[in-house]
């Protein structure tokens, strides 16, 4: 076994027995430059100094160079090891870390140091915890709110499957945006997201709106996994039925040969078509492009989202 195989086996032990899939060469429209800016190095040093994880690094996000140049990092709380083993995700899987009791305050300190006007906070899945990490999310939201009162807060949570009362705890902390990704179409869940349930995720998003209609809700999918346009249209309808405000659509990129293969690279024109389709279905905002990710340009998108709601309310009042 090569060193590379051994490293991969340790990072994703549940995938070690699987045959390799060919990693396809990316088309020109999806290639990005390696991160080299001084700001990137400064952001990385700050994260290491505060012992913080970022999904930018752990999930091998292609936009890390651009985002970190502007010091826009997405924090990943609840440790760096996930209890799920999704076929698309590069986050390490296995026995999870102990919770760091200082993590909420450290995230808040980093938000202040980076002078973020908008912050995105996500996490690994923590099926081992009684509340799935809900109280830790709430503590982090409150810590950031206290340290940086003008910073708007967006969270990207797990599905809190079988964690009674978890979503209520997080909503009570009043994030500005509550994001939970469906990731793909329901037909592909058994192979791409086997530990999750499509309709449970939809119900979580609907529950957030029931609890607090003022919180923006958001969800995203990857394309290029074998889904059809009709299936994406149905996912849009399902999200709108759950009163979700904002949808993101991006190209799936295969992290390693052990991960799910890319079925095809969706063209920029097709992404533009998805954006038009989503707007027609009533989303306040749709971000759809090959490099779109949940937190990509999240601060700018939040401003657009807020403005879109105000326009909708003004129109309804006329």
TrEMBL record:
<feature type="binding site">
    <location>
        <position position="295"/>
    </location>
    <ligand>
        <name>[4Fe-4S] cluster 1</name>
    </ligand>
</feature>
<dbReference type="GO" id="GO:0005737">
    <property type="term" value="C:cytoplasm"/>
</dbReference>
<protein>
    <recommendedName>
        <fullName>Lipoyl synthase</fullName>
        <ecNumber>2.8.1.8</ecNumber>
    </recommendedName>
</protein>
<keyword id="KW-0411">Iron-sulfur</keyword>
<dbReference type="Pfam" id="PF04055">
    <property type="entry name" value="Radical_SAM"/>
</dbReference>
<comment type="similarity">
    <text>Belongs to the radical SAM superfamily. Lipoyl synthase family.</text>
</comment>
<feature type="binding site">
    <location>
        <position position="82"/>
    </location>
    <ligand>
        <name>[4Fe-4S] cluster 2</name>
    </ligand>
</feature>
<dbReference type="GO" id="GO:0009249">
    <property type="term" value="P:protein lipoylation"/>
</dbReference>
<dbReference type="GO" id="GO:0016992">
    <property type="term" value="F:lipoate synthase activity"/>
</dbReference>
<dbReference type="InterPro" id="IPR058240">
    <property type="entry name" value="rSAM_sf"/>
</dbReference>
<feature type="binding site">
    <location>
        <position position="86"/>
    </location>
    <ligand>
        <name>[4Fe-4S] cluster 2</name>
    </ligand>
</feature>
<feature type="binding site">
    <location>
        <position position="89"/>
    </location>
    <ligand>
        <name>[4Fe-4S] cluster 2</name>
    </ligand>
</feature>
<feature type="region of interest" description="Disordered">
    <location>
        <begin position="1"/>
        <end position="22"/>
    </location>
</feature>
<dbReference type="GO" id="GO:0051539">
    <property type="term" value="F:4 iron, 4 sulfur cluster binding"/>
</dbReference>
<keyword id="KW-0949">S-adenosyl-L-methionine</keyword>
<feature type="binding site">
    <location>
        <position position="56"/>
    </location>
    <ligand>
        <name>[4Fe-4S] cluster 1</name>
    </ligand>
</feature>
<feature type="binding site">
    <location>
        <position position="61"/>
    </location>
    <ligand>
        <name>[4Fe-4S] cluster 1</name>
    </ligand>
</feature>
<dbReference type="InterPro" id="IPR003698">
    <property type="entry name" value="Lipoyl_synth"/>
</dbReference>
<dbReference type="InterPro" id="IPR013785">
    <property type="entry name" value="Aldolase_TIM"/>
</dbReference>
<dbReference type="GO" id="GO:0046872">
    <property type="term" value="F:metal ion binding"/>
</dbReference>
<keyword id="KW-0408">Iron</keyword>
<keyword id="KW-0808">Transferase</keyword>
<dbReference type="InterPro" id="IPR031691">
    <property type="entry name" value="LIAS_N"/>
</dbReference>
<keyword id="KW-0963">Cytoplasm</keyword>
<dbReference type="InterPro" id="IPR006638">
    <property type="entry name" value="Elp3/MiaA/NifB-like_rSAM"/>
</dbReference>
<feature type="binding site">
    <location>
        <position position="67"/>
    </location>
    <ligand>
        <name>[4Fe-4S] cluster 1</name>
    </ligand>
</feature>
<feature type="domain" description="Radical SAM core">
    <location>
        <begin position="68"/>
        <end position="284"/>
    </location>
</feature>
<dbReference type="InterPro" id="IPR007197">
    <property type="entry name" value="rSAM"/>
</dbReference>
<keyword id="KW-0004">4Fe-4S</keyword>
<keyword id="KW-0479">Metal-binding</keyword>
<dbReference type="Pfam" id="PF16881">
    <property type="entry name" value="LIAS_N"/>
</dbReference>
<comment type="pathway">
    <text>Protein modification; protein lipoylation via endogenous pathway; protein N(6)-(lipoyl)lysine from octanoyl-[acyl-carrier-protein]: step 2/2.</text>
</comment>
